[in-house]
Amino acid sequence: MDHDYFNHIRCPQHNLSINRIIQQKSINTSKRALCYKCPGEGASIFSVYQILDSLSSCLIPIHQQYKNLQDNLSTLKLEITNIINQVYSFIDGAIKKSEFEITRIEKYVYYRKNYKEFNIEDLESISHFIYNDAAQDNPINKSIKLLQEIQQCFKNQLIALFDRIIQLIKGSNQRQNINPILKPPKEPLEQKSTIIKKSNLVFVKKNEYQTSVVTAAIFNKNGDMLFQGQYPFSAYKNLEIKQIDNNFQIKNQSITEESDDNLDVQVTALALNDLTTQLFIGYSNGYITTYQFTGKVWNRKANFKAHTDQVNILIINLSNTELFSTGYDDIIKGYCCSQEIRYSNKEINSIKNICDIQINKESNYLFVIADGKLHILINSQDQFSQFQKISLQNQNVTCITTANNQLYIGSNIGSIYIFEQKNGSQFYEVHNNILIQQSFLQMKYCEEAKLLIVRLDKQVCIYQIGSNNKFDRTQEISGYYSLICIHNNMKFSQIILYCQDNYIASHYIMQKN
Length: 513
Hints:
By secondary structure, this protein is of the alpha+beta class. The chain has helices at about 45-80, 80-95, 105-110, 110-115, 120-130, 140-170, and strands at about 20, 35, 45, 195, 200-210, 215-220, 225-230, 240-245, 250-255, 265-270, 280-285, 285-295, 295-305, 310-315, 320-325, 330-335, 340-350, 355-360, 365-370, 375-380, 385-390, 395-405, 405-410, 415-420, 430-435, 440-445, 450-455, 460-465, 470-480, 480-490, 495-500, 505-510. It has two domains: about 20-175, no CATH class; about 195-510, YVTN repeat-like/Quinoprotein amine dehydrogenase (Methylamine Dehydrogenase, Chain H), CATH 2.130.10.10. About 20% of the residues lie in helices and about 40% in strands.
């Protein structure tokens, strides 16, 4: 050996360099390292180098796999910063359970480079590990087993944490409020429908089915087709199209998949034209794909990079001629889509932290929720321009729904505000009320039935709106729902509730009581 890497390590008794190691078992670890003045026999210190070389050959592949895992986490962190903090905390905690701490492996593996960092405790620990451990307790075996457990649980852990992504994209509407600290999993909440007050209309469960982590869902205009975007996992595809028959039975419909580069990418946004002939799909990689319905099959027509990161929102105007998109880059873009889709060079990037965009069927406005405020944009032929900004005193705007010339605005403390517009003037407040002391996460006004459907943290509430804007809570459906997909027309209303603690979609239809 041409270099004594540990000559800087001193014997505690004589303050001299260590030159040998006692190899016998059942020796107190603090007595193994000896200098030339210490009594007792031992192997040359150079034998430790040979062991470390062998150890390196075993640990380098393991260490590299952990490094690759960390690299993958770093990539994910760039895309979903808040979520990755939770995942990393889980893995980091698991890694530190290893007796031979993974965060210190690099020091031992590359001891020739890091030898100056070694101290007496390191040397004693290594020698104790080499000479005094049972095979089943060998830290290498423990590290390999731990790595296998992490790799097996890693995807499941991501799936379990996607409820945070759901809240980020479609739920809380307050990205800055997402708590990065890993919380214990929620205990499943019993899904139960309760009639609070007698009403002529009630939602009744027809069926339910298992899903992946659903992040986008939309009905067609007739309500007989459901488009469901989700995380591709196990047998679940990233996009499922479901046919709903007259008996409200749900069956899967096919979609072509040839040469689709996005099959393994999560679908995060969906839009559909009124004729159910054009489908627009947004992905977590920033791409948008368009599909055309021909005969009985959906065929892909276009695929292009729209945003630098995830596509969060897709929405089509009421004349089915314009598509709008936005992502985490907070750029709202417009596309012409009456026939083939093309970028219209119309965009706005001055609004930050966009959480939702909606369109009113009575106007050409875009309603944008961002930073706890509602921004109302005029969508003209060649540009977006600010028309009005609505702020709530000491509250944040969390969700909206529109009806004719009215806006229903929900807040983070459970307040409902109604704004009206007359003759093209700015919207003005006509009513406000605290319905429930919880943050509104999502809501939809069913105009024909005069019902307001509100998603909260642990339940969905149904309100009947009477004269003088009186809100009566008539029904409550308990459960941790991450998304509501609502269809409403003159004939009937139906909702799909996506439950985030057991990945079940529940299908409810409205019936006369």
